[in-house]
Amino acid sequence: MTAKILLLPGDGIGPEVLDATARVLDWFRRKRGFAVTTDSALIGGAAYEALGTPDPQATIDKAKAADAVLFGAVGGPRWDGLSFDKKPERGLLRLRKDLGLFANLRPALCFGALTDASSLRPEIVSGLDLLIVRELTGGVYFGEPKEITELPDGQKRAVDTQVYTTGEIERIARVAFALARLRAGRVASAEKSNVMVSGVLWRQVVQSVHDREFPDVALSHILADSCAMQLVKNPKQFDVIVTDNLFGDILSDEAAELTGSIGMLPSASLGAKDAQGRQGALYEPVHGSAPDIAGQGIANPLACILSLAMCLRYSFARVDDAVLLEKAVEEVLGQGYRTADIMQPGMTKVGTTAMTDAVIKALDARAA
Ligand code: NAD
């Protein structure tokens, strides 16, 4: 079966890092027998400029028909004044919703050559390899009521609603446990069961999914605030952290900082498997469209390239290829190649194309 990947470059540096990643994907097609076809479509500000909408139906339909989506980034100051339904970010939100992408995977991997880039001491982050699994479509960002009302005394009252059902917690817990089985076999579930009833239910449901279906995985429960503290104190204690939408938003950004550069961080968003085993999947760098450096050829393509490694691993079960690519990136960093965002004294400063060339050269050397 030929795999179908949809490329959505988007805005700013999105097209630059996605072009680089497409070159790497092409290497896997040519050199590793990966039977894959690609198509591309407009999303975000680019789609708004061409078609008047940031989330064209044709793009959504192509994404649904694809086995995986590789996404660049959307947004930029040019579209700041638009109404919410026309903003570039709407394109990404619509994709998440229409593809049912409820599980957001954010690895924080500290490459040996970059331990000095972290704000923490090298011995705390060296060898770090953790994965945050964040629930992406429920919780307080979506719960109703969500409103600001006027009180009789003239004050205003704002309400957001934190809401989770058993089913929503079960499905994200399953994703986390299944991933832990492919890693070091440990899951820490973070909530606030000491002060929130949604946290009480979260803890109960995660525990019961574990006991019924994943007794071989080591499960611990941790309060989200304590988890935030432990992430900067002793992050290497964690393997997989599973948490809700709000806490996941915060904890994954905190974990990102442990690794030093936003230009190095990949992510995946996965949906539920249907009866045929098909699963919505979108892979994207954590960073945004970086308008400040767009068009200069200096963007770090590694976050997007590492998102391709996640795609090979999770959508196509090509674990060997994913490892090969991650090792090639590690090697290139070890050889001293650095884009401006991760530049260190004594290293070789390169742009997007030269960094991609170096990755492809390292792949060639490893595959020879
Ligand atoms: P950003 O991630 O785009 O940039 C933050 C800083 O990091 C900038 O200085 C930028 O130059 C640098 N940076 C980011 N990626 C880099 C890379 N690959 N190589 C080198 N340097 C890199 O975040 P921002 O500036 O807050 O947002 C810019 C725009 O991106 C906004 O419109 C925002 O809404 C959008 N955004 C989109 C996404 C997405 O598409 N998923 C995510 C975050 C932000």
Describe the structure.
- The protein starts with a strand and ends with a helix.
- The protein has twelve helices and 14 strands.
- Helix 1 packs across helix 10, helix 6 crosses helix 7 (197-213) and helix 11 (319-334) crosses helix 12.
- It is 41% helix and 22% strand.
- The chain has two domains: 1-109 and 276-368, Isopropylmalate Dehydrogenase (3-Layer(aba) Sandwich), CATH 3.40.718.10; 129-258, 3-Layer(aba) Sandwich (Isopropylmalate Dehydrogenase), CATH 3.40.718.10.
- The protein has 368 residues and is an alpha/beta fold.
- The strands form three sheets. The chain has a ten-stranded mixed sheet, with helices on both faces.
- The relative contact order is 0.16.
- Nicotinamide-adenine-dinucleotide (NAD) is lined by residues 13, 17, 73-76, 89, 92, 262-263, 284, 287-293, 299-300, 303, 339, 341.
